[in-house]
Design a protein that fits this description.
The chain is mainly alpha-helical and about 70 residues long. It has one domain. About 70% of the residues lie in helices and about 0% in strands. The chain has three helices and no strands. α1 packs across α2. The longest helix has 30 residues. It starts with a helix and ends in a 7-residue tail after the last helix.
């Protein structure tokens, strides 16, 4: 495997980890609110903001998501 391929795979794995953290935090917000429906986007945005505020992967996450790419885990 060449270096470029290895770097892409590593980045993909790191992004998946960040997204799992965001998903878990959004779920926690949902549960804290008493599992009231209708706030999924709000929960995701808040969770994303919280997680990315302290992540060294924020620039990579922003770059890949601003291009409309999705990295489902």
């Amino acid at each position: 495997m060449d270096r470029e391929t290895r770097v892409r795979l590593q980045q993909k794995l790191m992004l998946q980890l960040v997204e799992r953290k965001i998903r878990a935090r959004a779920r926690q917000l949902y549960e804290e609110r008493g599992q009231t429906d209708g706030h999924a986007l709000e929960d995701w945005v808040q969770a994303e903001s919280e997680i990315l505020s302290s992540s060294v992967l924020t620039p990579l996450y922003r770059r890949t998501h601003s291009c409309g790419e999705s990295h489902e885990a």
